[in-house]
Request: fold
Amino acid sequence: MMLSLVLLGLFVAVTFALWREGLWGSAIMLLNVLTAATFATAWYEAVVAFLLKRGMSSYDYLLDFICIWGLFAVILLALREISDRVSRTKVRFRKPVEMFGCPIVAAATAWIVVCFTAATLHTAAVPRDLIQATPEARMFFGLSPDRRWLQWVRGSTLHGPFGRPEHAFDEKADFIVRYATRRKQLEAQPELRVRR
Reply:
């Protein structure tokens, strides 16, 4: 229940922040957030594999979460900088379009952020039950934003600009179960010390 309230708070905060930017700013952020989150989810495993080969195996349980959020942040900042430079002139909409369109676009962006956040929480190095009591449980008042996000990324890596059919993201659709097992293994560790 606490996790659902945190995600709800995130949804409200992002919606309010983008609502203040207006329809044009919200629409640009919608595209930036969607692109950054999809790319980060689709490719973080490649970054983790690269780092593990470079002697960072001591941080195995932390790397997934750090890499996915690190990629997201870097890509989002780069996209925001590019979009701000390319789109220097703010498009003005008629008042009714602005009034009705802005909250819808802001809420859509907030929903993407909630979906991405919920999916990435599975990769966090926390006790198994903190995220979900069981892998079959549904997050966020039964709306399952994590599952929606994983379906989106799985589909977008099969085709489209993020496509890599030979290594599609989460081919076996076992992401949630796989990370629930990893969190259970982490709980069984006697201590969390970095290997030297």
